[in-house]
Design brief:
Blueprint: E1 2-7, E2 12-18, H1 25-33, E3 40-44, H2 46-57, E4 65-68, H3 78-90, E5 98-103, H4 105-117, E6 123-128, H5 131-137, E7 142-147, E8 150-157, E9 162-166, H6 175-192, H7 194-202, H8 204-208, H9 212-232, H10 247-256, H11 264-281, H12 287-299, H13 310-318, E10 330-333, E11 339-342, H14 347-362
Parallel strand pairs: 2-9, 3-4, 3-5, 5-6, 6-9
Antiparallel strand pairs: 1-2, 7-8, 10-11
The protein binds nicotinamide-adenine-dinucleotide and zinc ion.
Length: about 375
């Protein structure tokens, strides 16, 4: 078991990861948040509840009120949020209530947002159940929902009181979800942690085989990386932008394929390959380093093939909300274990990188 501290100007809390946390959740929550209030809510999805509800309930003497969100981005919406808020009022929720977000990144983002606005804000706990949610979305306090106009356009910063990432729950996660989430760990290694890159290279079989020690090591290192970045730049004014390595092109791929063909991490995997190409051209990394990292991405693949045309993809990057004030901010690795943001990426560079990536992505890596 490992505990990682998030310590920002607005919140201080622990992220705990390891085996067997779920069965003792109530005690663990009381240890950080004090005696459980009159109303405790658990937001989850029907499939997660069917798999893990019994273990979840084991440690509670009074079972929390269960609220359900159907799986899929199309339920991460304002109408979905309103429905949950009204259910909470009907069930007697008040300012002292506590909410537990028990699910993947969608449940975590919606649960965090509901907690941020219910009665002007109540406390909540993240219990992430996907790899991606454990290493990424549950840490850092970003919450929110989609609008018909685009993803994650509404939200707030609202940190949980604690995060409990039980790696046992990954046992039921589909392989593709696991591999997709692992792309964020590769990202973590590339931008901040060389030893994580090396570990993932040397122990790919154990990690992909879900060997608990190997998983815990990768998860804890990824969380540590994210926490250290968030601790220094809570509101994404500077350093936190490096977490977007691979995401400019990754988001464009997701948008151009209408969020249907690829999982988020898979799109980020391709996006990182484009970023590595630019970095190599700018001599920010060597050819050998670029080849090594690209290989690592494929080891944790397969990344689905893409049948997209470069102009469409380049147009989609322009719409990326992360490009502030028209400046094309782009994250580039600097060697292995460091990264920076450049603001002078040219269209020609982007075109070359996207063409290179698409030439690879047309041949399936399955
Ligand atoms: N807030 C942030 O900082 C942040 C960061 C990254 C991503 N996100 C958001 O996270 C969301 C994606 O999260 P995700 O990848 O976890 O997807 P998800 O929440 O859609 O979960 C993926 C699927 O796995 C199922 N599932 C979850 N846990 C399971 C388990 N233990 N066993 C079996 N099945 C399980 C879910 O029901 C779902 O069908 C996106 O909406 C994204 O915008 C937020
Ligand atoms: Zn991501």
């Amino acid at each position: 078991m490992q505990t990682i501290r998030v310590d920002t100007p607005s919140a201080k809390y622990d992220v705990v990861t390891g085996s067997g946390l779920l069965g003792s959740l109530a005690t663990r929550i009381e240890r950080v948040a004090g005696k459980l209030p009159r109303r405790v809510f658990v937001l989850t999805s029907p499939e997660i509840w069917a798999l893990w509800g019994d273990v979840f309930l084991k440690s509670f003497s009074d079972p929390p009120v269960a609220l359900f969100l159907s799986p899929g981005e199309k339920h991460k919406t304002m109408p979905g949020v309103e429905k949950l808020l009204r259910q909470m009022v009907a069930a007697g929720g008040d300012r002292g209530s506590l909410l537990i977000a028990f699910g993947g990144g969608i449940v975590g983002d919606v649960g965090g947002f509901v907690a941020a606005i219910f009665m002007r804000g109540i406390r909540y706990i993240q219990v992430p159940t996907t790899f991606l949610a454990q290493v990424d979305s549950s840490v850092g306090g970003k919450t929110g929902v989609n609008l018909p106009e685009g993803k994650n356009l509404v939200g707030s910063f609202h940190h949980p009181a604690a995060v409990f990432a039980d790696i046992d729950m990954l046992g039921t996660l589909p392989d593709r979800e696991l591999r997709s989430g692992l792309m964020e760990s590769i990202k973590a290694g590339i931008i901040r942690d060389r030893s994580l890159v090396r570990f993932m290279e040397e122990h790919a079989d154990e990690v992909l085989g879900r060997e608990p020690k190997a998983l815990e090591k990768v998860i804890a290192a990824s969380i540590r990386m994210k926490a250290s970045v968030v601790n220094r730049d809570e509101r994404e004014n500077g350093l936190r932008m490096i977490l977007n390595l691979g995401h400019t092109v990754g988001h464009a791929i997701e948008q151009a394929t209408r969020y249907k063909a690829l999982l988020h991490g898979e799109a980020v995997g391709w996006g990182m390959i484009a970023a590595l190409y630019v970095a190599h051209r700018r001599r920010s990394i060597t050819g050998a380093q670029a080849a090594r990292l690209e290989n690592l991405i494929h080891v944790y693949g397969p990344l689905p093939s893409l049948k997209l045309r470069a102009p469409k993809l380049i147009a989609a990057t322009g719409a990326d909300k992360k490009n502030v004030g028209g400046v094309r901010r782009f994250v580039l690795p600097i060697g292995i274990g460091n990264a920076g943001v450049v603001e002078d990426l040219t269209t020609a560079e982007l075109k070359a990188a996207v063409s290179y990536m698409l030439s690879q992505a047309r041949v399936s890596h399955a």
